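Table S5 (text form). Sequence records supplied for joint modeling of the two-component complex.
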Amino acid sequence: MVSRRRFLKTSATFGAGFTLSMTLPAAASKLASGAAEAKTVANAFVRISSDNLVSIMIKHIEFGQGTFTGLATIVAEEMDADWDQIVAEAAPANKELYSNLLFGAQGTGGSTAIANSYTQMREAGASARAMLVAAAAQQWGVPVAEITVSKGLISHASGRYASFGEMAGAAAEQEVPKTVVLKDPANFTLIGAETVSRKDLGKTDGTAIYTQDIKLPGMLTAVVAHAPRFGAKVKSYNDINARAVKGVVNVVQIDSGVAVLADTFWNAKKGRDALQIDWDTSVAMSESSEEQMQRFRQTAQQPGLPAVAEGDIAKGFENAAQIIEAEYEFPYVAHATMEPMNCVAQITDAGAEAWYGCQSTTSDQYAIASTLKVAPEKVKINTLFAGGSFGRRASKNSDYVLEAVQIAKANKSDAPVKLVWTREDDTNSGYFRPMYFHKMKAGLDSGGKIIAWHHQIVGQSIMANSALSMFIKNGIDGTSVEGATELPYHIANFAVNLNTVESQVPVLWWRSVGSTHTAHAVENFMDQLAAAADTDPLAFRLANLGDDTRYRGVLDLVAEKAGWNAKNTSGRLKGLALHKSFGSYVAQVADLSVDKNGNYKVDRVVCAVDCGVAINPDVIRAQMEGGIGYGLSPALMTEITIENGAVVESNFDKQQVLRIADMPEIEVHIVPSAEAPTGVGEPGTPVIGPAVANALFAMTGKPRPTLPLGVKV
Amino acid sequence: MKISLNINGAMQQVDADSDTPLLWVIRDNIELTGTKYGCGVAQCGACTVHLNGQPIRSCSMPIGAIGDQKITTIEGLQSKQSEAIQAAWDELAVAQCGYCQSGQIMSAAALLKANVNPNDDDINGAMSGNICRCATYKRIRDGVKLAAQKINAVEV
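The corresponding structure-token record, covering 869 residues in total, follows.
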């Protein structure tokens, strides 16, 4: 146990600069340790140290998608800073200063990091620059207009010059400008540049610090025995053998199970294995996922609630020359981040402090405060690098975070507690991409135009039974139908219906959320319609496009780069898909080859993306590549099945995910654009599944209603 | 019980049961955190270290079975292969979340030590035990090839 006195000493050591020193290279650690004096200039995003480092506070978690690089680039651009003097730092939990402007609360998700903060970051950089210039003008007795700034150097024709660091103190004293003039994008030197390196460092030598790596004085590691089936509760337990394990310090019961606290992970796990728990399974789930899918199918016989109803559907089908139908079954899918969920929590007289890969900052902060009955300001969150999220860490009920806090509270001490989930804990917790059943029906006229479209979706609501249920409008959880309600195509008679069903399996957003299943259904169905119209899939899409020309832009680009219209000489099969999610337009062509055993392989993917202004082209390419790889897992091989209310594929021995041999070569092409930037973390993911399925359909002419597609043609 | 382990060239005395997996001794007792936990069943490769230069999954290696064999972690990896790999990884911005990359680099270093001109099949074979959920696999493949070029350029 940590004594009160020892804790205070610890706090002093890990003071304001803690997060900074955890996540930054040596040069910035110096800044954090107070060796150099840092001044906040203009706003909550820019701090300049006397030794000329510019620290940018990043309000969005960095879990691989590039926020440390992208947001810092935007600020540095408007400051005219030298990229080498820029360091990125995770912002603390502070709703007033660091809200996501699209959420009204601090948090990361929905591929909004760049989209919500582009103008805000530009203004932050421009304000800081203006104050540096004003300070120089004052010191040198020259007009502001005569001062130039380039690569972090402030200078005047008279020969006077100063670094940002030298001018930081004086700049901080200047009045914050009420308005700033932003750069003409034609003069950008960092935004859009290929030479801007990443700022999330330490990931090739083992020095980057994740939650798993946090070590605090007196810290205990907690491992929890969770319910063996969804909905089971602890009836009683015997911890005599667990407490006898060397290193075990305490055993406590919490809402989700029984936690064993020990000096090390392995001792805590041994303690957990020694627990004897009697589970109350009277209200536990007993259904299997297969039975559940049957239930979903039956539910689809009911009309459900309208999410969209345009034109006259009945009339549309009456007038159709031919009607085509299809069905799709999507299984549960786990996020399976490389770093299983974990969180370090400490409760003291002053409040609480947490260290973890925090994604939903404000809602976690408020949930912790509510659990401990303290004011949210008393909850300090240190956001660390996270070993992936893909939606999992944006927990709608702060599940694993509150588990750590409950354990720390039940332990009745101010010892920091590191909750570590094993891989099995992580998978068995659920919070999967929901299971869905889709039923599609479309009518074509004799010219191959789609004149009627009916799309019915059956699945669990992500937002129901949570604080987010207020966002469900007229019975429609938008996350269940997104990607189905707004299509690239103009269809006069258009309806999307939703049947929301219940299950005890917790569900959550999974990279690209609704689009991860709707795009597959829509785009694979489009190829079935194209075949019925005896038209090439590209030509069919072009003929049915609506007014938004950006769809055409990515289609044209991907078709050109993939050689869509060239004669097929390689023996490969091509499949095309198109989808917009989170404001970004993506088209992909997948090339497949088939071996003599009838096994197919995705050899190459060509991807075109229009995400508005390309802040960092290499990060965009990386996110498209990774998004494609992530989407290939559920397309080809990944599913979570449930037997008697328990997860079958708890670890990677049973849960198959994409490995290197199945990763195709990928080419990414970015549409040049002056539109406001939109996200790239998610939009690459939903397009690859239907592109692959369409290549298979091109070969066999047989629809593939069940996901994953498997290895055989 | 006290067990002696040769980690990164130094003898370390640890007080842990002999069935404790090497991974947790490296992380919790020696306090080297570059080696990561991912699955605990030798399926994901995040915990890859070298045992006498060969890549192994430390999550499934009990410390009682190691004896005086030499253990190398990402922190102790110092070779022309590892330097070339880390330079290639940075140049190509391979890492995304980065959590699996210590293990990826340990596997890549062992591959390049055994085979200085790996083709795609060699790379896919040697790296197939390392999962990356960010799916940085394309850049890992490119990174191994670039590292090989760097090593060969030095040797010429």
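Note: The longest strand of chain B covers residues 2-7.
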